[in-house]
């Protein structure tokens, strides 16, 4: 299976289940007004089928994972077309988030993925380098290579933490949708997942390296390195938690103020 062999796409298997759960969770709002939209639904589904057929021809680039990305995108279009056919535009608008959430099933094309991974590498290397300097550990940086007394590490693609970064992005996306109401606050919180991912991974790299220097060289190859990702993922959630609570509280306060104003206007 592609998802089980590709770090950047390990989340793909769970995406349909999460999307369908969101549809079920919000079913009262989504399906309060339903009306079949045969023409538009069939047209969208047919567009997905045509796009799938074109993706297997020479109309699009064939390098890397591009064909798979295009095929997955076609499947999502067909599903959305089927939803539109059965339930209509009102339900489609109300269920826009769960349906668009399905786009996370589409693997990132290699050209996009390479840029994301490189950004994570560069950011993680810089954070780790700053931490080494802050704690007084002599360090020399050459690109993605950090050299310290007795140890030299390279922040390779495998160390970019792309899987953890995707998990954090999806977690922030779901939290913003379920608990925040103001558009710009939702956007800010989701976008924060990228710098926090970089900071978290830089801390992880620095922590493992410092432990290998001052405690035991085995930390660079031990369980904390291979299986301790959840520890640093939890740390990233702790970093984001105060921001999320502040945004949620301000959203509730804004909603309460609006309710009071509406009541006053009604009483007049």
Can you walk through the features of this model?
It is elongated, with a radius of gyration of 23 Å. The chain has a 3-stranded antiparallel β-sheet with strand order 1-2-3, covered by helices on one side. The protein has helices spanning 2-5, 15-25, 27-30, 38-55, 66-94, 96-101, 110-134, 162-179, 183-191, 193-214, 223-227, 229-267; strands at 140-142, 145-148, 151-154. With 268 residues, it is mainly alpha-helical. The chain folds into 2 domains: 2-105, no CATH class; 110-267, no CATH class. It has 12 helices and 3 strands; from the N terminus they run H-H-H-H-H-H-H-E-E-E-H-H-H-H-H. The longest helix has 39 residues, at 229-267.
List keywords for this structure.
disordered C terminus, 268 residues, 2 domains, mainly alpha, 12 helices, 4% strand
Structure at a glance:
The protein is mostly helical and 268 residues long.
Reconstruct the topology from this structure.
Blueprint: H1 2-5, H2 15-25, H3 27-30, H4 38-55, H5 66-94, H6 96-101, H7 110-134, E1 140-142, E2 145-148, E3 151-154, H8 162-179, H9 183-191, H10 193-214, H11 223-227, H12 229-267
Antiparallel strand pairs: 1-2, 2-3
Helix pairs in contact: 4-5, 7-10, 8-9, 8-10, 8-12, 10-12
Q: Share of helix among residues?
A: over 70%
Total strand count, please? 3
Distance between the termini: 64 Å
Question: Number of domains in the coordinates?
Answer: 2
Output the radius of gyration. Answer: 23 Å
Largest sheet: 3 strands, antiparallel
What is the typical, i.e. mean, pLDDT?
A: 86
- Strand percentage lies at under 5%
Strand order of the largest sheet: 1-2-3
Shape: elongated
């Amino acid at each position: 299976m592609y998802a089980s062999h590709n770090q950047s796409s390990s989340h793909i298997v769970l995406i349909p289940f999460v999307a369908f759960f969101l549809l079920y969770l919000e079913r009262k709002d989504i399906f309060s007004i339903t009306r079949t939209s045969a023409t538009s639904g069939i047209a969208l589904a047919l567009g997905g089928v045509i796009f799938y057929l074109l993706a297997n021809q020479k109309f699009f680039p064939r390098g890397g994972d591009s064909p798979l990305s295009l095929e997955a995108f076609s499947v999502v279009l067909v599903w959305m077309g089927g939803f539109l056919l059965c339930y209509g535009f009102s339900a489609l608008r109300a269920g826009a988030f769960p349906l668009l959430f399905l786009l996370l099933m589409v693997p990132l094309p290699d050209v996009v993925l390479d840029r994301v991974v490189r950004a994570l590498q560069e950011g993680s290397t810089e954070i780790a380098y700053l931490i080494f300097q802050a704690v007084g550990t002599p360090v020399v940086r050459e690109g993605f290579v950090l050299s310290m007394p007795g140890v030299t590490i390279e922040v390779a693609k495998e160390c970019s933490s792309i899987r953890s970064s995707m998990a954090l992005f999806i977690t922030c996306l779901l939290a913003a949708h379920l608990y925040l109401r103001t558009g710009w606050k939702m956007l800010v919180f989701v976008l924060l997942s990228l710098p926090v991912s970089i900071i978290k991974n830089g801390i992880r790299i620095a922590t493992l390296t410092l432990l290998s220097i001052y405690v035991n060289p085995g930390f660079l190859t031990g369980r904390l390195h291979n299986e301790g990702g959840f520890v640093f993922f939890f740390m990233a959630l702790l970093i984001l938690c105060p921001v999320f609570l502040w945004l949620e509280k301000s959203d509730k306060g804004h909603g309460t103020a609006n309710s009071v104003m509406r009541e006053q206007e009604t009483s007049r």
